[in-house]
Design goal:
The protein is α+β, with helices and mostly antiparallel strands. It contains four helices and three strands. A hairpin with a 7-residue loop joins β2 and β3. It is elongated.
Length: 99
């Protein structure tokens, strides 16, 4: 199973939990942009930073900018509040925001 499908399954599982409120989820936006990848920008970043990113790692760019923010309360007398989430970077952003 590809990484995007695994993350989508995780987000669906979290979203289906009635004790968790999803505050932000952009999986659909990420999926719609899954076919865009700028090898030209990556090549420029590699040249400038003097590194080489293996082509097999390009597949991880499909999860660029994936965001999930969630929160949960226990609704018990000794109320507890939990929150979590993540925002993933693209390959270019992971290289330090190459411009």
């Amino acid at each position: 199973m590809e990484i995007l499908q695994k993350l989508e399954k995780l987000i669906i599982t979290i979203g289906n939990n009635d004790k968790i409120k999803v505050d932000k989820n952009n999986i659909e936006e990420v999926q719609s942009g899954v076919n865009f990848f700028s090898e030209r920008m990556l090549a420029r970043a590699e040249e400038r930073m003097k590194i080489i990113i293996p082509k097999e790692d390009y597949k991880f760019d499909v999860i660029r900018s994936l965001t999930l923010d969630w929160s949960s309360t226990t609704n018990e007398p000794d109320e507890e509040y939990l929150w979590g989430g993540f925002q993933l970077l693209s390959l270019i952003e992971s290289l330090g925001g190459y411009k």
